[in-house]
Design a protein that fits this description.
2 copies of one chain form a homodimer. Chain A is α/β, with parallel strands linked by helices. Chain A has 2 domains: 3-194, Rossmann fold; 197-349, N-(1-d-carboxylethyl)-l-norvaline Dehydrogenase, domain 2 (Orthogonal Bundle). In chain A, 44% of the residues lie in helices and 15% in strands. The first copy, chain A, has helices at residues 16-28, 41-47, 71-74, 97-101, 121-127, 168-181, 196-217, 221-226, 229-247, 254-263, 273-279, 286-300, 305-324, 342-349, and strands at residues 8-12, 32-36, 49-53, 57-62, 66-68, 82-85, 110-113, 133-138, 142-145, 148-151, 157-161, 191-192. Chain A has an 8-stranded mixed β-sheet with strand order 5-2-1-6-7-8-11-12, with helices on both faces. The N and C termini of chain A lie far apart (46 Å). Chains A and B meet through helix 7, helix 8, helix 9, helix 13 and helix 14 of A and helix 7, helix 8, helix 9, helix 13 and helix 14 of B.
Chain lengths: 353, 353
């Protein structure tokens, strides 16, 4: 088949995860791959990426078939069969993911959310009710350092339907995508995720706890553990998260998973993404990692004293970042009033999203 | 009386509080005042302080009778009748207050702790069992900006005995000190504190809650309130603090005091001292403000879920500051082990105090 006849894939977001996804598709030669590259666009047009991947090796000057500087710009490369969303998912940020991908979505586009978190499919379904929306959870370990991709973990993707029961049509789409993505490579593990909820909630045991706490404290996980936080905060917070999952019918082997995540970074002094984001003064994926689970807890009547307190604190960190990047401009004169009225004034005048 | 015959007072710490205390004593002319000035010593020797005080007016080039560059250096100015300790009280810092004042303490010295917090008298009594130790709580509003003292609030001191029942001797010492401190000035309010515990616990309702939370979040009180923390954290944490006070026999009108402190800074966007300290990367008065109340809670079986969680978090902030100023040097190789063993290794190898 000529390139023009192949399925068209748009990868939105050229971080460590998005670039390796584009590379895997490109390597497989069964799709026409467009990658949206925002901040490094000219650099990538000129020189391409440098790839250091345990799965795909060392590659210089790599580019997929098309590189676009925005989603609007990408639209010229096709009606896309697949749109893979790998950007950070920050519904309280400058643009929602729905707004970001809108210019490229056609009726035939299948949208793959290659992102963390819970509840990310709901606004996507609302924005694009006719489109198939799939869950792609990665365990890859890949970072983009200004055009140099350091990818230390296998290309491990769990692809599935957000709905519990998939239609035959959706099952076929999942198989089709695996067909254009899966390389003959022992380290490329894309597979069908039979239980997306389970996969996502289990990943949250780590993310909902270590991410916000290290972001609040601006310090790595190991240093928190040195200070005794395993027992005072991490384990009890993980128990709360697992209770929320259970209230949604997701059964998790509590002790096994808690001990797995408590020890997964032993000795690594690792800073999770939200900690790195606040260090860089960038907005954090707070709502999809912790806010949405807590909304579900409230709906289902699950008690979450520790997670709620952590959410209250990390929300202020997000607020601080919004102010500091100019996304939010507080007029102090609006707040020279009874302190109990401040939150309502804020919600009314400032927090439109 | 000649100056040599007057009682000798040593003021340790030349911040906003200590300098105004020295100024009040000097103005009264009934004592011989020595002030320890560490960081700005030469500047003060050369030019003195500039004072902008609502109580004592505008004064240029002011110095007390003696200025010493250290407590050791001060010892040459006398056997002191009174030693007023106005430094920050950080028992987990480089030096404890007991170690700081030791070179100047003689058998006849009365020690006035002009400092915040609970439990500060215990190590002082242990170090100096023969000396009278008094509590001085100030509400003054005074800051030292490199030798310029901005003092916006009246000179308001509550002087009392840490013990519930004062001996006649101690009562006389308190009266004697008031005699050498109280000026004929409507804004100089030094008075006998008949219930030191009550005074100190009530001040903690503010300090134990607003201080650590704003320090963790690196943001002022009003911005926390904009984000809804009055109800989610501040009020319930204040209730816990009041329960601890009650377990020590200190009765506090809960709703009245909580509402007073919730609204005391309405519209001011104020950053409490611990928040300012962490911003400047200086150690915080964490133990005397929150650690000691929680030790009392544990002893008396008072439940403190919120304050304990906040203490867990702010302890990591203190750890981060200790590392960053070099007071603590973590060898990562010591911690490349089971994360549950890290805290014990830390306590054993690093946290000697």
């Amino acid at each position: 088949m000529s390139l023009a006849q192949l399925p068209k894939v748009l990868v939105v977001g050229s971080g460590g995860v998005g670039t390796i996804a584009a590379l895997s598709l490109w390597t497989r030669k069964r799709s026409n791959v467009t990658l949206v590259v925002r901040s490094d666009y000219q650099k990538i047009i000129d020189k391409g990426f440098t790839i250091n991947s345990c799965t795909y090796g060392h590659i210089e000057n790599w580019r997929p078939h098309n590189v676009a500087k925005s989603v609007e710009d990408a639209a010229k490369y096709g009606e896309f069969d697949y749109i893979i969303v790998t950007t950070k998912n920050i519904p309280d940020g400058k643009m929602t993911c729905e707004e970001i991908i809108k210019p490229a979505v056609s009726d035939k586009s299948t949208i793959l959310l290659m992102q963390n978190g819970i509840g990310i499919d709901t606004p996507m379904h609302q924005a694009f009710p006719k489109n198939v929306i799939l869950s792609a959870v990665t365990h890859i370990g890949s970072t983009n350092y200004n055009g140099i991709i350091e990818n230390k973990g296998p290309d491990n993707v769990f692809l599935g339907d957000f709905k519990k029961e998939s239609s035959p049509k959706v099952r076929q789409i999942i198989e089709n995508f695996i067909h254009i993505y899966k390389n003959d490579n022992d380290l490329n593990f894309i597979r069908v995720d039979e239980n997306v909820s389970q996969t996502r909630w289990e990943k949250l045991i780590y993310n909902s706890v270590f991410n916000p706490v290290t972001a609040i404290l601006n310090i790595d996980v190991t240093r928190c553990q040195i200070n005794g936080l395993n027992d005072s905060i991490f384990r009890p917070a993980m128990r709360e998260l697992i209770s929320i999952a259970k209230s949604e019918g997701v059964e998790i082997d509590e002790e096994e998973k808690i001990e797995k995540f408590i020890h997964i970074g032993d000795g690594l002094f690792y800073s999770p993404s939200m900690c790195v984001d606040q260090k860089k003064n960038q907005l954090m994926e707070l709502e999809i990692i912790l806010g949405n689970p807590l909304k579900i807890a409230a709906k289902n009547g699950v008690s979450t004293p520790i997670l709620s307190l952590i959410y209250g604190l990390v929300s202020v960190v997000q607020f601080r970042i919004k102010e500091s990047i100019g996304l939010l401009k507080i007029n102090e004169d609006d707040f020279k009033i009874d302190s109990d009225k401040l939150h309502d004034v804020y919600l009314e005048k400032y927090a439109h999203k």
